[in-house]
Sequence to fold (426 residues):
Amino acid sequence: MATEPARLTAKGRATRDRIVGVASELMLTQGVARTTIEDIQREASVSASQLYHYFADKHALVHAVIERQTTDVLGFQRLALDRLDSFAALQEWRDMAVAVMEQRNCTGGCPLGTLASELAETDPAARDELATSFGRWEKLLRDGLAAMRTRGELVPEADPDRLALALLAAVQGGLLLSQTRRDSLPLEVALDTSIAYVRTFAPSNWGSGQRVG
Amino acid sequence: MATEPARLTAKGRATRDRIVGVASELMLTQGVARTTIEDIQREASVSASQLYHYFADKHALVHAVIERQTTDVLGFQRLALDRLDSFAALQEWRDMAVAVMEQRNCTGGCPLGTLASELAETDPAARDELATSFGRWEKLLRDGLAAMRTRGELVPEADPDRLALALLAAVQGGLLLSQTRRDSLPLEVALDTSIAYVRTFAPSNWGSGQRVG
Fold:
């Protein structure tokens, strides 16, 4: 059994953190399959016995990487989404996502999306964890949209569940296409159009468009 | 240099096809990194010398898999999209995509998306090829939307470039989330909302929604 972070000393936590950081970097750039325990050990400058003190096996490392990436991604969302009480906040969230992607020249996709795509068919536990992570992200979006509806910034016909899922799919698809094309345009268009769709549920815009099936 | 398909006899083409089929299956389910030449050789029941007669190395196999998957995915799109001259056709395309995903119990994502996510940071040639494949897919969508606009089924303000990219991102994001959740709902919602957004550009729905920035 590997040692849980809660039981570690400050120094132990720092070492564990460093290992998870290195594992994240390697697994996200070269893939989980291509990343060996030895790679991580070498890059993190730890001995095998140190590494195994914290992580029983590669599965435990993958689990820790998913946990870390979930915290990071949701933390990033919260920067904008704790204040998701307006279209301005949604726009800011969009701008932040595009800026981050441009900063790294469109290399790398969403860490959760990348891990999900690689692991969905080979690691059922990882797939489950990632589904939960996406669910938490979706909930952040849904809660914001629901608050907007409650305050009347969206009409009662707006469905926060569906709109949140549409926004999350747009981010994921947009990031994957931007990563593949090395161009932020797909992400921009995916977010702009899905936010524009949310906007059709603003009282001032609410018209015939949504009622035609 | 590996032998190009055009130079092969019918029997040679059949063998090559079988190898590409096996390589596709393995690379898409277990990942490119986890798939060895030996795996493919064994599963396709060919000797090493036979395999190397057709493919110089693993890169050549990856290239052939991308080519095959692009043909398959675009062929599938064309089933619906050659007739993308109405919202009914878009709806049919959506229904087909959802039906296929349900048929396989939401296992596997888009072959092109899966390959792009795994290879974007490790195989620049594959990334380029996949960007081209996505571009061809986007063009199918764009041509259909442009035709609808020409015929007045979309208002002149509709931008086929942006709408096509939004639809493609929605499919990619929706498939990834559906694969991860093993639930077709994300794909359904992503496609329904992005088609609903296209519908806001139909002359009968064209209202204030699109003009509020």
Chain A touches chain B through 59 residues (CB under 8 Å). The two ends of chain A are 55 Å apart (CA to CA).
